[in-house]
Write a structure and sequence with these properties.
Helices cover about 40% and strands about 25% of the residues. The relative contact order is 0.18. Helix 7 (about 185-200) links the parallel strand 7 (about 170-175) and strand 8. The strands form 2 sheets. It has a 6-stranded mixed beta sheet, sandwiched between helices. By secondary structure, it is of the alpha/beta class.
Length: about 250
């Protein structure tokens, strides 16, 4: 059974069809990439897959359960998390606190326990802090644990968002242009992190314009053009598809 399955997915904004009649499935494990020119519908697709947008038509299934039309927190509770193309970091918090926020969905909570400071709540907070520290180490940011996030380098903030998403304990992690604006060294760090993610059992959906990165890490690639599927296959198949070369890759494919 596929981890995520999409049937007849569509999203229209007025008369503009941002996504139209998409159908695909994502297996457990590995990196499933979505590429295409600007305006192809990639971010709209991620917004649909995480409940931020309600589809105009179609169905979304996660591990066989239909999630279509449910709110974003229901997708997160089911085991899906994402990062954003534009950084969504709490700049008034430390790096550690940012990651701890991501644990909220999995933490025991209650008004009485919080007001009376039950010992169980204190234990849960210590465990939350310890796990956040572990996740910062996993993404290579242990040295920034106590640092204010507004003082961190841009490349580190990209990995901080990934650590916070991982705090929700996802089985499917959707990354929206994690290498955008990064220098070559920072991009290699993202590359290495995705390898660690898949080895840890997390399935990754990657939206990215850096074709060197995409072709190097992807197990499967879906190519969009004007919201529709243009091609789909392995990196080698997509790289040599004449339709993809004409619409998107161009001379870079050579």
């Amino acid at each position: 059974m596929s981890l995520l399955r999409v049937e007849g997915l569509a999203k229209a904004f007025g008369g503009v069809h941002a996504v139209a009649e998409l159908a695909f499935s994502i297996p457990q494990g590995g990196v499933f990439s979505v590429i295409g020119p600007n305006g192809a519908g990639k971010t709209t697709l991620l917004n649909l897959l995480t409940g931020i947008y309600a589809p105009s038509a179609g169905h979304i299934f996660f591990e066989g359960e239909e999630l279509t039309g449910r709110p974003p927190h229901a997708y997160a509770a089911r085991g899906m998390a994402r990062t954003f193309q534009n950084l969504q970091v709490f700049f008034n918090m430390s790096a550690l606190e940012n990651v701890m926020v991501g644990r909220y969905l999995r933490e025991p909570c209650g008004l009485a326990a919080a007001m009376l400071r039950f010992p169980s709540l204190a234990r849960a907070e210590r465990a939350c802090r310890a796990e956040a520290e572990e996740l910062l180490g996993f993404v290579g940011l242990a040295e920034f644990a106590s640092a204010p996030s507004d003082a961190m380098p841009y490349g580190a903030l990209k990995r901080l968002e990934i650590a916070r998403a991982l705090a929700t304990k996802p089985r499917l992690l959707l990354l929206d242009e994690p290498a955008a604006g990064l220098n070559p060294t920072e991009t290699r760090e993202i590359d290495a992190l995705m390898s660690k993610l898949t080895k840890s059992g997390v399935t990754v959906v990657l939206v990215e314009h850096n074709m060197r990165l995409v072709m190097g890490v992807s197990d499967h690639i879906l190519v969009l053009d004007y919201g529709r599927r243009l091609a789909e296959g392995t990196a080698a198949e997509v790289r040599h598809d004449p339709r993809v070369i004409e619409a998107y890759l161009g001379a870079e494919a050579e």
